[in-house]
Specification:
By secondary structure, the chain is α+β, with helices and mostly antiparallel strands. The protein is built from two helices and six strands. It has one domain: 2-Layer Sandwich (Alpha-Beta Plaits), CATH 3.30.70.120. It has a four-stranded antiparallel β-sheet, with helices on one face. It starts with a strand and ends in a 17-residue tail after the last strand. The structure holds adenosine-5'-triphosphate (ATP) and magnesium ion.
């Protein structure tokens, strides 16, 4: 299992959420974060913002679903401009559904 951790534009979250849901990836975790990429924030006049608001989205999927889920997120999040975001893929050791104590893929 893998954890897909996507940092996306806050205004693209709804689109990403809907695209994932449409393809059967209905469970996710999200929060607003502050971050910076290659451009080290943003210069507006004399003000330099060292970090900018982004939306973080986490989705856990089975290994063979990673490419599909990544593509859905990237397609829905993309505007073609700098700051579109980044996707990280992490290994997940186990998943436990608390209510039933199911483990692994069947608990996703
Ligand atoms: N190497 C990194 N480590 C941790 N977080 C990162 C990293 N790169 C990007 N991020 C996160 O992703 C957000 C969006 O990054 P961003 O899309 O600006 O990446 P980039 O590498 O600068 O690409 P681009 O040139 O398209 O802007 C950042 O605000 C930050 O929260
Ligand atoms: Mg950037």
């Amino acid at each position: 299992m893998k954890m897909i951790q996507a940092v996306i534009r806050t205004e693209r979250f709804k689109t990403v959420e809907e695209a994932l849901d449409k393809s059967g990836y209905s469970s996710l975790t999200t929060t607003m974060v502050m971050g910076r990429g290659h451009q080290k924030g943003l210069q507006v006049g004399s003000t330099h913002y060292t970090t900018l608001p982004k939306q973080m989205v986490w989705v856990v999927v089975e290994d063979d679903q990673v490419e599909k889920a990544v593509d859905i997120i990237a397609t829905a999040a993309e505007t073609g401009n700098i700051g579109d975001g980044k996707i990280f893929v992490l290994n997940v050791a186990d998943v436990i559904r608390i209510r039933t104590r199911e483990r692994g893929a069947s608990a996703i």
